[in-house]
Each structure stands twice: as C-alpha cells, then as structure tokens.
C-alpha cells in the first residue's frame, strides 16, 4: 500500500488566494478622522457680544473726548408765538438761570416747567438747535371770563390768576364750585351763542351748590340787563322757550322787565321793574 502524499496545488488562474484566519488585513483610518474635532461654537457666540461692547466703549470714549469741542454755551434764545399779555423781556428773565448752561447740559424739561408756571402761558415747547440756540414756542392763555373775584377762565374752562385782574372787569363773571369750572364755561358758551342773535350778552352766570343756574344779561342794544332764573336742568329747552316768547310778546316790554323765571314746565313768570317816580321840580322861592 503506497503511502498517501499531500500536494499543494496552486490556485486556479484568475482567482485570488483567500486569506485565512488572522492573516486578513484591515485598512487604517486617517489620523484626522480618529481625533475629536474642535468645537468653536462657544467662541462664535462670544465674539459678537464682545465686539458690541468694544464698539460701545469706543464710541463713549470718543464722545467724551469730542464733547469739549462740540458743547458750546447758549448764545441765542429764540422766543416764538403771538405774545399779547406777556413780554419777551419777562420770558428772558424767567429762563435766565437755565440758558447759563451749555448746549448739551441745558435742562429743557425744567425750562418748560418754569415757563408754564407763568400765569399767562398756557403751553410751552422748548428745543435745541445746533450749535448754540434754544427755540421756545409759547401759547398764551385766552381769557374768556372772570372766575369769581380772584381769577380768570380760559376757553377750556381752566382758571389762572394774573396780577392785573382789574384790567378785565369788562369780561363776564362766572361763579360756581371749584370742581365745576369747565361745566360753567361750557354752559356759558352754549347760552351765549343762543342769546347773541337777540342782542343779549351774558354779564353773569352762576351755578349754585344745589345745582340751580342764574343768568344776568348785560345792558346793550336789547335794553337793560335782566335776570333769568333757569333752575337745575333742561337749560337749552328753557332758553328756547324764552326766545320764542320774547319774540312774540316780551320784546316790546323788555325795558320794563327785571327778571324772568323759567323754572316752570311749560311757561315762565315775568317780574316787572318798579316804576320810577317822576321828579317834581321844587318851585323857586324868592328871597328878599
């Protein structure tokens, strides 16, 4: 029996040898892939805030260095507005402590408050104009009536107290509770507009504590002043009633009427003036 012999046969042409066991080769990854990548997100998030802070600080420092060259003293104060009751000189004297400051440090809010504390100034606007000017625009009070004996009322029903009240005695005189200034002014404007076509003006209008209204007309082309008792409510309706009856029956007798009571639901009551006794001339007595 012949011994068996092992022969190593070469691989067939065209076929690669198959690696066996641990002899199989594995491709190595590049070093850049195996190492962890650096994370720059935090630095990017921090970059913009730092840049903004740096820009702000640089702007502030630049402004501080340029301020002495740009900030100038106030050399021109321009006062605008139609001034009837106050003078330019009075305004200049009032704001003198404020304009002593420089262009950037002048207190515009304080200047406006100071001006509006003047009795005749209703509203003030103050602004800077480069490089050394302050422009002031003033709106004066418009006196429409006297409020009691110590103040005037403007067209908005707001009281103000100038010094020279004696110069405005020709204005109508309004009375009422302090809380009712605007209400009395509004009622005055309505009633005055209704009476004006008849030749009447309002010399006095009073709202009493209990809510009753009393009106006195001024002497004029329609005759001497008369007193109208209007009551508490429906003033416009009562005034219309008075106008209608006046045109029909009272117009010819207006010089003899002292007061008219309109507190009735559908009518009125007339109070007549007392007749003036004629003056009797005393006969002359001859003296020896």
TrEMBL record:
GO cellular component terms listed in the entry, alphabetical order: cell division site; plasma membrane
GO biological process, any: cell septum assembly
Highest taxon above the source species: Bacteria
Region of interest called Disordered, as start-end residue ranges on this chain: 1-23
Chief location of this protein within or outside the cell: membrane
Assembly with partners or alone: Part of a complex composed of FtsB, FtsL and FtsQ.
The protein, known as: Cell division protein FtsQ
